[in-house]
Amino acid sequence: MLKRRRFVGLLSQLKQHSVALISLLVALLALTLNTERANTSEHQRTTRDASFRVLAELSQLQLLVDEAHYGSSGQRHQPISGWARVNYMRDLAMLIPEPVPKSLEALYVTWSQQVGQLGELDEVGASLRANVAISDNVRRARLSVKEVLSQLD
Fold first, then answer.
1. 3-class DSSP assignment, residue 106
2. Global confidence as pTM
């Protein structure tokens, strides 16, 4: 009998406070959804910003590569600025989803293998091969960044 009376009392309190309980449930649900949306927006903003920075660095690296091979001897740049750009892009790659990190790693490997031949006046053929190899990897990296950007909301 006591159990029944407690149950009826509980049921009565639930009826009295049903609007408040429903309001609390709706508020918690709205807060959860808003937090999730904010996290998604922040992730996409970070990805977008890092992607645009990588695109800018890729353009500058391509310019450096072309000037090293095609430019006059006074116009040729030292590869140290290329190393700085390639390493900076590798750092940014951790903020961008695949396939960008793979393509930037491939660019790094190609750069490290080919930069010694780039701009060599004594071996124009080797310089051209280095230019083509690095430029091809720059193009692939650019395409992978554009692919990631096109998938963002």
1. helix
2. 0.80
